[in-house]
Amino acid sequence: MTTSSVPVRRKRVPLAGDLYHPRQAALQHTLRTVTPLRTPDFAPFEPELSRIPPADLAALDGRLCDATIPELQRLMEAGTLTAAELTLYYVARLRRYDVGRLQSVVELNPEALAIAAAMDAERRAGKTRGPLHGIPVLIKDNIGTGDRMHTTAGAAVLLDARADRDAFIVTRLREAGAVLLGKTNLSEWANFMSDRSSNGYSTVGGQTRNPYGRFDIGGSSSGSGASIAARFAAAAIGTETYGSIISPSGQCSLVGHKPTHGLVSRDKIIPITDATDTAGPMARNVIDASILLHAIAGQDANDPATAGVSARTDIFAAPDFGAEALRGARVGWLQHDPRRSGDTRVRQATLAALRRAGATVVEVPFAPPQVDYMSIFRFGIRAGVAAYLAATGGPVESLDDVIAFNRRDLRRRARRGQQLLIDSAREPLSAQGYTELVRTGREVSLAAVRSTLAEHRLDFLMSFRTSFAFNMSGAPLLSLPAGYLDSGEPIGLLMSADLGRDGELLAAGRAFELASRARRDPVLR
After folding, report:
1. Cα(368)–Cα(466) distance, rounded to whole angstroms?
2. Which DSSP category does 369 fall into?
3. CA 129 to chain centre
4. pLDDT above 70 covers what percent of the chain?
């Protein structure tokens, strides 16, 4: 049987969220002492934080440890918790465990407490906006916000850059009543900067570390993964081109969802390629991920890919959400590549949980089509970054300008090099060639996914490893906590389905979550 792994190549180059960076844990350890250009500013929160007794924070730790977003809502509806208290609780945890340690959050929103207070006032007046009302969330630092926070993609050249307005998904979060708490660190330029890059490292935010130990943090939504695993917010938004949500979710024992392509707008998100880029939720459980997806999904006039795309994303409202979603389902297990000792044990436990949930599991072959995704990425980032800078009013105009800026101080601005940016600036592919490459790549990738589902009469595909075919096809992907190696390193189970079946995929993920009960919190010191 073939595997769903990325095909082996003679030269390993890191991709956006590449799952197989060599020596990542060791490389990340060597970068842990690099001083970031920006760290969170706690000054706007200090007066309120100083009035909270340590015993109250410890009590909140116990009460909120496993709370889902609906459970947080019930506490606020009962009057035993406010959005302002919840916001301060997360900020206190972040100040204690993140700065100089995990380095997952690069900037706090100075207006977060004011937003939380406004949501509390609305609740007292009898108005609630939905499941995210008063809930603090974090977003990745390549998503534009038209407020006092910056949008940098982790790059020194954009250190002082601010977006001219909110991204569409940020507007949706605000309308839903979410408290925008801050921005998370990421692999610089979404992990498409250097062939010697480190997951979770950026010039702006430094090196993000895995809260579970000295393990690879995954990329490029590294800060979103670490921050939610460590409970610095209720949930976060990551972005993905190839593995950038699912990789850190797996490494941080989280639920991460890469939506069907076009379900979530890419408006005002610093891009790699419009062929596969998307934003998506990262959370500690499927219910919270589903709630977050429902808030950000929708048609946006600024992103043509969202036109006509629909999926049922509101099934989280059902009291028995997902409990029976795998009953009678046929699941295709794509033979995985056991690259780490312990995979077999976790695989056996995963298969047992799937069967307990009522699924029939069959091993199936999967032959990923060969797609020249590096040319797609190189052309995409060159054109996409230039378009973003032109529309947003950045301090530079092109990828060439970024490269020139970095060259003036490589030690500080491009410590791990910038060869992928250089290669992208020189990419010979034409716009017409890019369009054709994307079209054919999407056709063959979607055909591979759909033919595997149809031939074996499958509802879902699952594995511990992924293939670019799932991103290129536009199919949804879901990462779920599956267990831990003997070393304590987390492993994520990947699930996929046909286009637009995001709601059903999340429901199936919930059924697995209930059957496996695999996730546990990291121990922070």
Report:
1. 10
2. P
3. 24
4. 94
Give the span between the Cα atoms of 414 and 404, in whole angstroms. 11
Residue of 4, 5, 104, 140 with catalytic role: 140
Q: Which helix (H) or strand (E) holds 406?
A: helix 399-407
CA separation for the pair 164, 184 (Å, rounded): 19
Question: For residue 523, what are its two tokens?
Answer: 């121990």
User: Which of 220, 221, 227, 290 is the catalytic position?
Assistant: 220
Q: Are 172 and 292 in contact (CB under 8 A)?
A: no
For residue 364, what are the β-bridge partners? Answer: 334
- Which of 222, 244, 249, 445 is an active site residue? 244
Output the CA–CA distances (angstroms, integers) from residue 437 to 349, 377, 386, 472, 476, in the order listed.
40, 11, 20, 11, 21
Q: Which two tokens stand for residue 343?
A: 């995979």
* pLDDT confidence of residue 343: 78
Please write down the HEC assignment for all residues of 67-118.
CCHHHHHHHHHCCCCCHHHHHHHHHHHHHHHHHHHHCCEEEECCCHHHHHHH
DSSP string, 111-173: THHHHHHHHHHHHHTT---STTTT-EEEEETTB--SSSS---TT-GGGTT---SS--HHHHHH
Active site residue 220: yes
**Torsion angle defined by CA atoms of residues 208, 214, 220 and 225, in that order, rounded to the nearest 10 degrees:** -80
Task: Compute the average pLDDT of residues 138-143.
Answer: 98
Query: What is the model's pLDDT at position 15?
Result: 43
Distances from the Cα of 302 to the Cα of 143, 202, 265, angstroms? 15, 28, 8
**pTM of the predicted protein model:** 0.95
Cis geometry, peptide bond prior to residue 198 (ω within 30 degrees of 0): no
Nearest to 72 by CA among 252, 249, 226, 288: 288
Q: What is the pLDDT of residue 226?
A: 98
CB 220 within 8 A of CB 17: yes
Q: From its phi and psi, is residue 447 left (phi > 0), alpha (psi between -120 and 50) or beta?
A: alpha
pLDDT exceeds cutoff 80 at 21: no
